[in-house]
Automatic annotation (TrEMBL):
SUPFAM superfamilies: CinA-like. It comes from Saliniramus fredricksonii. This is Nicotinamide mononucleotide deamidase PncC. The gene is pncC. InterPro entries: CinA-like_C (IPR036653), CinA_C (IPR008136). Pfam families: CinA (PF02464).
């Protein structure tokens, strides 16, 4: 088993509610490298809900796959509220999904700065109807794997909150 039983149960419950409402999800992932989509697709029948996933690890991928303007990335940096919002909205625009989740962060062990330390992650959830929701987390330097898992948990939380508003 790749993921814990608790995470898989949470994902299965989420997918069940999305499926019951006829809603589909897209993911746009940088620091998690596709782990959110991986967790969701670990669940049998997830194809009813998971429309597609984008692993946009590089700035070029954020631009080419999701339409994040290069100028935006240069002005704010890939790990920023502005860019992660654009990633989520781009994933929504480039898919048939009703809800898109996006993440970008500094998972470490290196790459952090004073302004953007290891453990800083920005998450955004865009919906066809409603405003894009942003969440900033500063997990601290807990190790790459732990930061990525904590990001998955917060991404699930944003998707769960989106159900009520989608």
């Amino acid at each position: 088993m790749i993921f814990t039983e608790e995470r898989e149960t949470r994902a299965a419950n989420l997918l069940e509610v999305f499926a019951a409402r006829g809603l589909m999800i897209a993911t746009a992932e940088s620091c998690t490298g596709g782990l959110i989509a991986g967790l969701l697709t670990e669940i049998a029948g997830s194809s009813r809900v998971v429309e597609r996933g984008f692993v946009s690890y590089s700035n070029a991928a954020k631009n080419e796959l999701l339409g994040v303007p290069t100028e935006t990335i240069e002005a704010h940096g890939a790990v920023s509220e502005t860019v992660v919002r654009a990633m989520a909205e781009g994933a929504l625009a480039q898919s048939r999904a009703h809800v898109a989740i996006a993440v970008s962060g500094v998972a470490g062990p290196g790459g952090g700065t004073v302004a953007k330390p290891v453990g800083l992650v920005h998450l955004a959830c865009a919906r066809q109807r409603g405003a894009t929701v942003h969440l900033e987390r500063r997990y601290g330097d807990r190790g790459r794997g732990e930061i990525r898992l904590m990001t998955i948990d917060d991404a699930l939380g944003l998707l769960e909150a989106a159900i009520a508003e989608a």
